[in-house]
Write a structure and sequence with these properties.
The N and C termini lie far apart (44 Å). The protein is flat. Helix content is 79%, strand content 0%. It is an all-alpha fold and 185 residues long. Helix 2 (12-31) runs antiparallel to helix 3 (35-59), helix 3 (35-59) packs antiparallel against helix 4 (63-87) and helix 6 packs antiparallel against helix 7. It has one domain: CDP-alcohol phosphotransferase transmembrane (TM) domain (Four Helix Bundle (Hemerythrin (Met), subunit A)).
């Protein structure tokens, strides 16, 4: 699919932007309690997230493309829980806020590690060719997608799923901090 899009002249950044638009549309659908529509839009958004890198490898990767992909992914990851919070603030606000905090701190630990890895000239292709150094963790993109799918399929379980995933995300953050202490300490 990426080869056909690239051959048609579609650029990676356009697909990245499309993924964000679809992700925000998913959050809006969820906010209006249209969970099946939200699920379909989440899946379409993540398809774009997978295609943009493949298209970039065909047309030629750019630093801006890597930057854009990371920033817009973070926006997507914040938008979906926000949709659930808006859908039912009484039931979802605190759990959603806890999940967003976990995402925020995890994102900071991820980016700070990448900065230090660059400073120390560390390289890794364990997760494929990326724009910056990726550390592995228990809560990553695939796991986040699985949890978002579960939230759409079982919206009344959002608080339980959000708290549970916040714990896994926090574990990932703590693991990364420990790794950074060992590597850079």
């Amino acid at each position: 699919m990426a080869a056909q899009l690239a051959a048609a002249g579609v650029r990676a950044n356009a697909v990245t932007y499309a993924g964000l638009v679809l992700g925000f549309a998913a959050a809006a659908a969820i906010a209006f309690q249209a969970y099946w529509a939200g699920l379909a839009l989440i899946l379409a958004s993540r398809l774009c997230d997978g295609l943009d890198g493949a298209i970039a490898r065909i047309h030629g990767k750019t630093d801006f493309g890597g930057y854009l992909d990371i920033v817009l992914d973070f926006a997507f990851y914040g938008a979906v829980p926000l949709g659930f919070i808006i859908a039912d603030p009484g039931a979802n606000a605190i759990a959603g806020a806890v999940l967003l905090l976990a995402f925020y701190v995890n994102g900071a630990s991820f980016l700070a590690y990448a900065i230090m890895a660059e400073k120390h000239r560390l390289k890794s292709d364990a997760r494929g060719e990326k724009s910056l150094f990726f550390t592995t963790g228990l809560a990553e993109a695939s796991e986040t997608l699985a949890v978002f799918v579960a939230m759409c399929l079982l919206p009344s379980w959002f608080p339980v799923l959000a708290y549970g995933f916040a714990v896994l995300t926090a574990y990932t953050t703590v693991s990364r901090i420990v790794l950074a202490g060992r590597r850079f300490g």
